[in-house]
Write a structure and sequence with these properties.
Shape: globular
Radius of gyration: 27 Å
Strand content: 25-35%
Structural class: alpha+beta
Strand order of the largest sheet: 14-13-10-11-12-15-22-20
Length: 638
């Protein structure tokens, strides 16, 4: 585990943490160790969140939506003033790279625990950042800034650079809004989608277009700068295992990276940070061609702490949050420590890989993580996972003397990380840890795509037996053990005990065996479904009565002889952010009808078959999972 930086001589009495979830808990933990009073902020949705209880003080900042709370600069500054905080730690996401917040802190006489405004302005704009660092000897990917260009002008420049291209928002990060374009004919549609997502996520639809590196590795360097002009690099991290540009598993150091290439990366990262007189924690991100690791290209600089910072902490034994606080208080940076061992981090998301990684929401009925590895969690048993924020609910970090040991320990830890009440990607993470290319270090950002679609696990007999046992009524107080151990009895031939049947989320009926298996966590939700966990697999099993089974068989017979299901249904709870057709339009099977957005992800609802569409929702509507959003009539078309 990381070591703690010694308590500050002077510095801050109170620091406000302008964030939520696991990063807020992470920062609060270090502030407590430093003897600094921590101040949490919370929205209506987070009133009972763990980070609020763990802080010394807490301030309410607004409604559940991030735009009404965590993205409000005025609310954050007001909260800091009320709490008497001398500094604000922004965490990551939300306002962590906000020029407006940094400037407001400066105006209010509050220390922003992050870089100064100039660094944020330059590095916060991808187009400006690539132009800036290229003038300081940092290699960049061929491409251009599309600000001020219309679609025709953008197409002309794109044709000059050549395809394939990556279209990405100039503002923001996290892969949101990125689109791959393989020909000029695809460009207009990609620009429209990217601009819409960018405007919704960042309030800025400016675009940068870059040559797509076909088999890239994503490697980043942790840098730190102090107010005395020193900038250091604390090693690199491998962040290549991604899905839709979102990192899934990260490790430090990078796998099988030649020392000469590592040195070039560290030197380029320090040069980029020095070019803006950087202060605080930052990450300089690079693309490295997997088939030719000598080719490295600057992507962007994230002017904040990263989600994956724990792997750097594990191999350097530094507390990076404590180092941020010390630098913000004016202390000088220490000499970079030697990197030792290997660390791997897996991001646990509330999502369903089996259903295309759709987000999952609900109450966490059980959260039980292993104690022999580091787990940074946003939730605990009883927490509510809503659609208002990012779906990451925990990070599991394993350390070992070498890469293979760290991977084995991570897999073993994931197998014991029980989450009930919401779907998670833990089973997928285990499959990724055990993938032969991951184990060998043959990585590129497209590796995860080769594993898709990810098959749904089938309930084992042990899981079904545990679920059936969870439905067994409790024995009345004072009743003998025979009450619950003997089967039913009637006059005549002996009758077997009734067997339990369940419906899986894949709409399959499963029968539970009679024998009960101990040691499998279970919990029952408010709808009566039983959640079970075993070896990293979480499953929701809905009990089926005899009558329900009969009704199901009759319904299947009717569907087999009748028309196809005409309804397009919401795959998850969320908001309707786009309507792609007009009421009464003729559509073909697979045409997008509407798009639903939740947890920063956008998913289209497709026409189930050819026909005439009738919309059941409008732009901006909130919908439930499985709610019909459109009806496609075959008869009307005929």
């Amino acid at each position: 585990m990381i070591s703690t930086v010694p308590e500050l001589d002077g510095g801050f009495d109170a620091v406000l943490v302008a964030n939520r979830g696991e990063i807020a808990r992470r920062v609060i933990r270090t502030l407590r160790e430093l003897g600094i009073r921590s101040v949490a902020v919370y929205s209506d949705a987070d009133a009972d969140a763990p980070h609020v209880r763990e802080a010394d003080d807490a301030e309410w900042i607004g409604g559940a939506a991030a735009t009404d709370s965590y993205l409000r600069v005025d609310a954050i500054i007001d909260a800091a003033r009320r709490a008497g905080a001398q500094a604000i730690h922004p965490g990551y996401g939300f306002l962590s790279e906000s020029v407006a917040l940094a400037q407001a802190c400066e105006d209010a006489g509050i220390v922003f625990i992050g870089p100064h405004v100039r660094a944020l302005e330059i590095m916060g704009d991808k187009a400006r950042a690539r132009d800036h660092v290229s003038q300081h000897g940092v290699p960049v990917v061929p491409g251009f800034n599309a600000v001020g260009l219309d679609d025709a002008q953008t197409r002309a420049r794109a044709d000059e650079v050549g395809y394939p291209l990556l279209v990405k928002p100039s503002a923001g990060g996290g892969g949101k809004g990125m689109e791959v374009v393989r020909s000029g004919d695809e460009l207009a549609a990609a620009l429209a989608t990217a601009r819409r997502v960018a405007m919704a996520s960042f309030g800025d639809d400016a675009m940068v277009l870059e040559r797509l590196v076909e088999r890239p590795r994503h490697i980043e360097v942790q840098v730190f700068g102090d107010t005395h002009g020193t900038v250091i690099a604390l090693g690199e991290r491998e962040c290549t295992l991604q899905r839709r540009h979102q990192k899934v598993i990260e490790e430090a150091p990078a796998a099988h990276l030649p020392d000469a290439v590592r040195q070039r990366l560290l030197e380029a990262a320090v040069a980029a940070a020095k070019s803006v007189d950087y202060v605080g924690a930052g990450t300089v991100e690079f693309l490295v061609e997997a088939d030719s690791v000598d080719d490295i290209f600057f992507i962007e600089m994230n002017t904040r702490l990263q989600v994956e910072h724990p792997v750097t902490e594990e191999v350097t034994r530094l507390d990076l949050v404590a180092l941020q606080v010390r630098v913000a208080a004016g202390d000088e940076l220490p000499e970079p420590p030697e990197v030792r061992g290997h660390a791997v981090e897996a991001r646990v998301y509330a999502e369903s890989p089996e259903r295309g990684f759709l987000p999952s929401t609900g109450r966490v009925l059980l959260f039980d993580a292993p104690l022999d590895v580091r787990v940074d969690a946003a939730v605990e048993t009883g927490s509510e996972v809503t659609g208002f924020y990012d779906p990451m609910i925990a990070k599991v970090i394993a350390f070992g003397p070498d890469r293979q040991t760290a991977l084995r320990r991570l897999d073993a830890a994931l197998a014991r990380t029980a989450v009930l009440g919401v779907e998670t990607n833990i089973a997928f993470l285990r499959a990724l840890c055990g993938h032969e290319r991951v184990i060998s270090g043959d990585l590129d950002t497209g590796l995860i795509d080769t594993m898709l679609p990810f098959p749904a696990a089938q309930p084992t007999e042990a899981m079904l037996a545990a679920a059936a046992h969870a439905l067994t009524p409790a024995r009345p107080a004072g009743a003998a053990a025979l009450w619950s151990t003997l089967p039913g009895w009637r006059i005549g031939t002996p009758q077997p005990a009734p067997r339990a049947f369940f419906l899986t989320d894949e709409d399959a009926v499963a029968e539970a065996p009679a024998a009960f298996t101990h040691g499998i966590p279970t919990a029952q939700d408010g709808d009566g479904a039983v959640w079970v966990f075993a070896d990293g697999v979480t499953m929701r099993l809905r009990p089926l009565s005899r009558r329900a089974r009969m009704q199901r068989r009759l319904a299947e017979q009717e569907r087999a002889s009748g028309p196809r299901d005409p309804e397009g249904r919401a795959p998850m709870p969320g908001a309707v952010v786009a309507v792609h057709v007009a009421d009464g339009d003729s559509v073909h099977e697979g045409d997008p009808l509407v798009s639903i957005e939740a947890m920063k992800m956008e998913h289209p609802v497709l026409a189930p078959h050819d026909g005439t569409v009738h919309l059941l929702v409008a732009l901006g509507d909130q919908v439930r999972r499985d709610q019909p959003v459109a009806r496609v009539s075959e008869q009307e078309t005929a």
